[in-house]
Amino acid sequence: MTSSNVSEALGYEQARDELIDVVRRLETGGTTLEESLALWERGEELAKVCRQWLEGARKRLNAALAEERSDGEEESDGEGRPGSGGE
C-alpha cells in the first residue's frame, strides 16, 4: 500500500492531528534537510486528505439543504406561501 493510499484511509480527525504534529515538528526544527522534506511531503498529503474530507462534508450539507429547500417548495402554494394544508 502506498503512502497515498494510507493517507486516504485516514479519517479527518486522524489526518488533522497528524498534520498538526508534522507542522509542530517542522516549526521546532532540529531535523535534517532530508527529514524536513519528508515531513513537508507528508504534510502535503495530510492537507489533501483534510481538504477532501471537508469538500465531501460541504457537498453533503449542500445536498441536504437543497433537499430541504425543495421539500419546502413542494409544501408551498406555488407562490412561495404555505399551502392550505387541508385547513
TrEMBL record:
GO terms for MF: exodeoxyribonuclease VII activity
Entry keyword DNA repair: no
Class in the EC hierarchy, top level: hydrolase
Keyword terms, alphabetized: Cytoplasm, Exonuclease, Hydrolase, Nuclease
Catalytic activity as recorded in UniProt: Exonucleolytic cleavage in either 5'- to 3'- or 3'- to 5'-direction to yield nucleoside 5'-phosphates
Keyword Magnesium attached: no
HAMAP family: Exonuc_7_S (MF_00337)
Assembly mode: Heterooligomer composed of large and small subunits.
Homology family: Belongs to the XseB family.
Role: Bidirectionally degrades single-stranded DNA into large acid-insoluble oligonucleotides, which are then degraded further into small acid-soluble oligonucleotides.
Record protein name field: Exodeoxyribonuclease 7 small subunit
Gene: xseB
